[in-house]
Amino acid sequence: MANYEAFLPDVEENIRNHESIRILLELDDFHGWNFSAGWEDLKFGLRHYRDLQRLGIVGDHSWERVMASAFKPFTRGEVRYFERAEMDAAYKWITDAVGDPRPAAEDPRVTE
């Protein structure tokens, strides 16, 4: 939770300074949410529904893939999950231009 609280001010500032943002979130030693953290994520998602262009989530566990899917209703942007071994593909997808004729989604290493 402390990392999340440190991360939020930077996200909020980037949202104020740019039309939309992209986030690549690497879950490391993540054990899930408690009610308070889940509530904060819900409020953030509702407040910034239109501000997130892409959210890439990198993790190690199948339940994290399910969690990534749970984010989809709270953003207009694209949300994708990547296994840790796919970090390069995740970074490429986050940084690719939207509308690129060869999006990272065509990369066979990328999973949705």
Outline the structure in words.
By secondary structure, the protein is of the alpha/beta class. It has a domain at 19-29 and 47-112. The protein is 43% helix and 18% strand. It has 4 helices and 3 strands. It has a 3-stranded parallel sheet with strand order 1-2-3, sandwiched between helices. Strand 1 (21-26), helix 2 and strand 2 form a beta-alpha-beta unit. The chain is globular, with a radius of gyration of 14 Å. Residues 100-105 and 107-112 have low confidence and may be disordered.
User: How many strands, which pairing sense, and closed or not: the largest β-sheet?
Assistant: 3 strands, parallel
CA-to-CA gap between the ends? 26 Å
Strand order of the largest sheet: 1-2-3
Strand content: 15-25%
The proportion of residues forming helix, as a percent range, comes to 40-55%
Report the total helices: 4
How many strands?
3
Q: Calculate the mean pLDDT score and round it.
A: 75
- Give the low-confidence spans: 100-105, 107-112
SS-based structural class? alpha/beta
String of helices and strands: HEHEHEH
Radius of gyration: 14 Å
> What coarse outline follows from CA principal-axis ratios?
globular
